[in-house]
Amino acid sequence: MRWPEVWDDADVSEGLEGVSSVVEGGQVGAGFEAMAAGDWRGARDAFSAVLEVTAVPEALLGLANALFWLGDIAGTIANCEKAYVAFRRSGNPMFAAGAALSLVGYNKGYLGNTAAARGWLSRAARIIDSEVPELRGELLGATAYVTDDPAQSEALARQAAEIGRANGNSGLELMAMHAVGQAMVQQGRIEEGMSLLDEAMAGVVGGEGSDPMTVAQMSCMTMVVCGSCFDLERATQWVQSLQRFMDRYGCPFLYAECRTYYGRVLFENGDWDAAEALLTDAIAMSKGVFPAPHAFASGTLAELRLAQGRLEDAGRLLRGVEGREEAAAAVASLHLRQGKPSAAAVVLRRQLATTSPGRLDAATIIELLGETEIALRDSGAAIERARALVALGAVNDCHLIVAHGERLLGHALASTDVPAACAHLETALAAFIHAGIPYRTAQTRLLLAQVLRRSDPELAGAEARAALSVFEDLGAGHDADAAAALMRDLGVKAARTGPKNVGRLTKREQEVLALLGEGLSNPQIAGRLFLSRKTVEHHVARILSKLGLRGRAEAAAFAVRSAS
């Protein structure tokens, strides 16, 4: 998103020494010290105090960075623009070029404003070419970032990496190496590209990239690349490696797309509360600003709502994004859950027709289309989808895509070849267990139980019981109901116990739940508790999630029962 090594130049510290002597108490220096400690609010307050007295360029730059970490993207961009102008007026081309390069990333990565990003790139290039040629590596890196052609992006990033290596600028070298890896993955050279990503991440997490922004950008893009490749294990492992950094500086997944991918990782790993919080943030920060990430985040949260059995909430999330490709999987999944496979098939076939063959992000669409064809009683077509999915995963060395293909193949064969169906499902189950993704594991166990219900009811009951336990823990109400129903059909006692989060409501959530029990609407609750409507909506969503309820009516009934 930006190439922050500009701020690591030796001239920075010299410039700050002069500035801090101007401002009483050295507040500019104090602001940068707070940033180095990850105290973003302290940094914001220090820089703001300076700017109340005088428009010091370094304070504008520092405030922009602090606001970035506090999630105020509008404030970040506004102050970075002011810093650019102030540095130009003060005759500091290096800092001016650095501010311009930062604005390239902010505009493209956060606003989706390619025109503004390219404009700032051209402005930076003019300054660098004529006044600060030592920033040519950073310019090449930023150019690679805005370039749509992955082959061209790779070539530019390789040049940037060579410059960083030759000049001993490890931050630039690592970021450029990471960009090379991304471009290679986009071109289908996944194993080689991922290896470069891992090497670059190891270097930056190990301390070679001194600026936290370097870690933030590379972590974000790692999450995006891993998400696009279904590489949940790698994403999870890098999140674990970033824990120390996150404890000091906060979450590095700071823009909507990588927050959404991180939310997906948390969803797959079974941390649904944390996933919901991230996805809600991603929706809020992209609404009305960046249509593609907004649709992506809305669709991902809608998929979580469907897993929770909350169809109405999923439908509300998808209003306004139904026609976007980023939400196609969620829209089709909702149609399927509503018993409308023909409508789902139309959405999925349209999406598949516009997707380039061999793209890994087509895997979800292929699998859903196969499930839709099973619902339409076209098992032959579903088997072909499953084989295509297995082949896609195998050629790209993506074990989870293969596992999803094996599961689809098992489902498609269930009505005609039980032994073969079970073999494919067992293969998928082993892969999901190894990857540590509980929801997919439980779904596969339930499917295996359904296939075995006649040939081996005892084993079917055991698999259904194991699936039910996971569904209950996660709050996957619809799936838990299906597992309990199957167990009853098998003559196994299966009383629903509800998710283990029941009763873990905050005091405010308990107040909102009580008012739901009185039949109040969200606006009425907002007025009663002196809250905003959006805050009430968030509380209601958290209540439904924690209690495993499907809507306001169930929440109201729960509140009445609890009070009696």
Arithmetic mean pLDDT: 88
CATH topology-level name of the domain at 1-126? Serine Threonine Protein Phosphatase 5, Tetratricopeptide repeat
Q: Radius of gyration, rounded?
A: 26 Å
Q: What does the overall shape look like?
A: globular
The number of helical segments is 31
The beta-strand count equals 0
Describe the main β-sheet briefly: none
* Low-pLDDT stretches: 1-25
Relevant CATH superfamily of the domain at 1-126: Tetratricopeptide repeat domain
Explain how this protein is built.
The protein has 31 helices and no strands. It is mostly helical and 564 residues long. Among the domains are: 1-126, Serine Threonine Protein Phosphatase 5, Tetratricopeptide repeat (Alpha Horseshoe), CATH 1.25.40.10; 147-254, no CATH class; 507-563, Arc Repressor Mutant, subunit A (Orthogonal Bundle), CATH 1.10.10. The chain is globular, with a radius of gyration of 26 Å.
Briefly summarize what is shown.
The protein is mostly helical and 564 residues long. The chain is built from 31 helices and no strands.
Write the layout of secondary structure elements.
Blueprint: H1 10-22, H2 27-36, H3 40-53, H4 57-69, H5 73-89, H6 93-111, H7 114-130, H8 136-146, H9 150-166, H10 170-186, H11 190-205, H12 212-228, H13 232-241, H14 243-249, H15 256-269, H16 272-286, H17 291-307, H18 311-318, H19 328-337, H20 341-353, H21 363-375, H22 379-395, H23 399-413, H24 418-435, H25 438-452, H26 457-474, H27 477-489, H28 507-517, H29 522-529, H30 533-547, H31 552-563
Helix pairs in contact: 2-3, 2-4, 3-4, 4-5, 5-6, 6-7, 6-8, 7-8, 8-9, 8-10, 9-10, 10-11, 10-12, 11-12, 12-13, 12-15, 15-16, 15-17, 16-17, 17-18, 17-19, 18-19, 19-20, 19-21, 20-21, 21-22, 21-23, 22-23, 23-24, 24-25, 25-26, 25-27, 26-27, 28-30, 28-31, 29-30
